[in-house]
Hints:
By secondary structure, the protein is of the alpha+beta class. Helices cover 12% and strands 28% of the residues. The strands form 3 sheets. The chain has a 5-stranded mixed beta sheet, with no helix packed on it. A hairpin with a 4-residue loop joins β10 (172-178) and β11 (183-190). The longest helix has 13 residues, at 137-149.
Amino acid sequence: MKEEDAGSPRSRLCVVKITTNGPYVVSGGVPLAEQTICADDDGQPHGWREDRRYPAQERYALCRCGHSLRRPYCDGSHTRIEFDGTETAPDIPYLEQAAEYDGPDLRLTDAELYCAGAGFCHRAGGNWRLTRDSADPEARRTAIEEACECPSGRLVAWGRDGRAIEPEFEPSIGLVEDTQGRKTGPIWVRGGIPVESSVGETYEVRNRVTLCGCGRSSNKPFCDGSHED
Length: 229
């Protein structure tokens, strides 16, 4: 785990550019692979498994409307369906949106608007209860695991030193697959890669965010779990 920062020198060479009513254009040679949600013995989401890796490319376009027949890549279907990709996410930093939950040995921040529905936060009684009970070493460990497994960064665990406890990612993009729920999820942008809006402004750079890949999110460009409907 590491303290959250604004992105490594490597990540600043990469960018995800949102095009007007069109795809995400990824540049900088960002690796692309399927990332599958695993489950524990009780069937609760726990951990990730990397599956198919896509061929390395310096630049590629990922479908944003959810209708491409070449997914994850764009095939121009956004034009055919007259996709409305208007970006509606608030221009407010994560911490200003997040509720705070304090425990004896951890603090949890939670920006519910960015929930991607991965379900990691429900194991062992839930991330909120575990944070409250974080004086217990096992509860603290599980609370940190759950917060770090959250792909969207909706949930972030913070130590007593005030530093965010973040998973370590190389700049990369994951295509989320939920085999239990038989759903294809969002586009998982990792390692502090900047996401640039269609008007050229950069969203807050974070270690992990999830972008909508189904075209139905009410919080575009970010996932709000609409793919589950």
